[in-house]
Amino acid sequence: MKPSVILYKKLPDNLLRRLEAHFTVTRVHDLREETVRSHAQAFKEAVGLLGSSEKVDAALLDNMPALRATSTISVGYDNFDVEALNARKVLLMHTPTALTETVADTLMALILSSARRVVEVAERVKAGEWTKGIGPDWFGTDVHHKTIGIVGMGRIGLALAQRANLGFGMPVLYNARRQHKEAEARFNARHCDLDTLLQEADFVCSILPLTDETRHLFGAAQFAKMKSSAIFINAGRGPVVNEKALIAALKEGEIMAAGLDVFEQEPLSVESPLLSMPNVVALPHIGSATHETRYNMAATAVDNLIDALNGNVEKNCVNPQVA
Ligand code: 8YV
To answer: Which positions carry the signal peptide feature in this UniProt record (predicted)?
Structure first.
């Protein structure tokens, strides 16, 4: 008999078949209490759990006594209670390398579209305004050779530094817990404290994961330190930013614009003041959302679950110590 796993995200057919070659797969839509209750036996027997975005906490784990590994189709894992997993010796696998380049592309798209007002002016063209002529009120601000400040220098930060520095001639400042030798050697990146970065950068880009230390790291005091011409970009996690403070900073002209892929509450409410601000580009958390990358992430997550349940935790494992 094949071991049982729970799948709570849709997979491409060939990946589902790959998973089914190894496991008996129970497919569910989500991990809500009522879903767990209606598949109680499958959850009780499952040794593996595969999906993304849903909360995996102690209450869910209590319904999964046989669980040995979880695999998320994402790099971020703030929706997992890692302590609860560790306490039950359950492995957590993620996809840290599959989406790096695609998310860095999204960051450049946010930088370019915010600075050059791409979305706003394209809408004006569609509304027929071009026929009346364009003037300085259509102009944006330069990107090339401006200073980029990267908060969180991991794989994605490095790929962003490469694009910004080699492609756009931008000097790179970065703030991270550790010095990043490769970023310094290849892209002349300069390590600095957060305040220096906030004061000097023309583009402040947050690519931070959500942790107790990063929650609301960007608040009123941080926006006040930025240049009034600064553009704030966030493609890490929404709750790293105090959104009320960001809205106030944009309203009061403390910063010039923002390009956001992530929000404190997702999906973003239609009531959010951010949506009526012309100087805000808001994307629906699509940092990694290309056909190629989402496929690669799902394939990696399937392989990760197979690996983890075979005791192979050399790569992509958040908590290999519990193996
Ligand atoms: C995911 C992300 O697509 O990987 C991450 O951490 O934020 C995105 O790439 C998202 O979590 C949905 O799976």
So the answer is: none
Mutate which of 9, 50, 75 for ligand 1 pocket (most atoms within 8 A of beta carbon): 75
Rounded CA separation 214/110 (Å)? 21
Give the Cα separation of 160 and 128 in Å (integer). 35
Cβ of 74 closer than 6 Å to ligand 1, yes or no, is yes
Q: What are 321's two structure tokens?
A: 């110590």
Tokens of 44: 């009780």
Question: What is the spatial distance between Cα 89 and Cα 63, in angstroms, rounded to a whole number?
Answer: 15
Direct distance between the N- and C-terminal alpha carbons of the chain, in angstroms, rounded to an integer: 23
Mark whether 163 is an active-site residue: no
The residues, ordered by sequence, that sit 6+ positions from 168 with a Cβ below 8 Å of its Cβ are 143, 144, 145
pLDDT in tens, 59-97: 999 999 999 999 999 999 999 999 999 999 999 999 999
Across the chain, the runs of DSSP E, i.e. the strands, are 4-7, 24-27, 48-51, 69-72, 91-93, 148-151, 172-175, 190-191, 203-206, 231-234, 257-260, 280-282
Ligand 1, atom 11, lies closest to the CA of 74
Residue 147 DSSP class: P
Q: Which of 67, 33, 30 is nearest to 49 (CA)?
A: 67
**What is the rounded average pLDDT of the residues 215-242?**
98
Q: Angle at Cα 52 formed by Cα 2 and Cα 42, nearest 5°?
A: 35
| Annotation marks residue 17 as catalytic | no
252 is catalytic: no
- CA–centroid distance for 208 within its chain: 8
Q: Ligand 1 in contact with 236 (CB < 6 A)? A: no
Query: How much distance in Å is there from the Cα of 229 to the middle of ligand 1?
Result: 30
Ligand 1 in reach of 52 Cβ (< 6 A):
yes
Among candidate residues 186, 190, 266, 294, the one labeled active-site is 266
Q: What is the pLDDT of residues 170-220, one digit of tens each?
A: 999 999 999 999 999 999 999 999 999 999 999 999 999 999 999 999 999
Strand partners, 50: 7, 71
